[in-house]
Write a structure and sequence with these properties.
The complex is a heterodimer. Chain A has 7 helices and no strands. Chain A starts with a helix and ends in a 5-residue tail after the last helix. Chain B has one domain. Chain B has 2 helices and no strands. In chain B, helix 1 runs antiparallel to helix 2. Classes of the chains: A mainly alpha, B mainly alpha. At the A-B interface, helix 4 and helix 7 of A face helix 1 of B.
């Protein structure tokens, strides 16, 4: 009975990555502090570069008077903007706590800033996935 | 402090940061990461020039 459901299930289970505490902690830390997921796994160079790039992009977006989206249920583009922004984790939380990122509509640079903030969050999502892959041994 | 970048400066800064993240996350070895980061940067900046010329052609 090589093709029985029981055999298939056990094969699928053995192929699944092992669940360790690192595979849970790393994505959470990586989301909260960009680059920290790599740093706690001793990938110093990668972690510092990711931290510098994502943080610089987010801060430059704020300094360009970019807008930070709120979790309102209004326009679909506002909701997508919020999803992007919230990817920056701790940076987004601090920005909201300090009441920054109201944006300015007077000049085009502010619109670039809004995009910088969103993309910084999206890049951090990629960074989180990469840190998770390192934690489960899928990537060196 | 308020920063007022030109469109080109903002696009190049965007390219630098995005290329660093793409390079690190999409390749495994340091050499591959560096090469892929440079490739992404070239594509971003090249895309800016191509889009710029296309808009110029549409305008004229």
């Amino acid at each position: 009975m090589a093709n029985s459901p029981v055999t298939k299930k056990s094969a699928a289970t053995s192929a699944a990555p092992p669940v360790s505490s690192m595979s849970v902690i790393v994505p959470a830390v990586a989301w909260l502090i960009p680059g920290a997921g790599h740093l706690i796994q001793k990938r110093w160079g990668r972690g510092l570069l990711l931290m510098a790039s994502i943080t610089a992009m987010f801060v430059l977006g704020l300094l360009m008077q970019g807008r930070v989206y709120m979790p309102n249920g209004g326009d679909i583009l506002d909701m997508l903007g919020f999803v992007g922004d919230v990817g920056a984790g701790g940076l987004y939380i601090v920005t909201r706590a300090m009441d920054w990122g109201h944006g300015a509509i007077a000049h085009a640079t502010a619109d670039y800033g809004t995009k910088f903030i969103i993309v910084a969050g999206l890049l951090n999502f990629i960074s989180v996935a990469d840190a998770y892959h390192i934690a489960i041994g899928k990537k060196p | 402090m308020i920063l007022n970048f030109s469109h080109f400066t903002a696009a190049v800064l965007f390219a630098v940061f995005a290329s660093v993240v793409f390079g690190i996350t999409q390749r495994n070895s340091p050499r591959e990461q560096f090469r892929y980061g440079l490739y992404c940067f070239a594509m971003f900046v090249g895309g800016v020039f191509v889009a710029g010329w296309l808009m110029w052609l549409l305008r004229h």
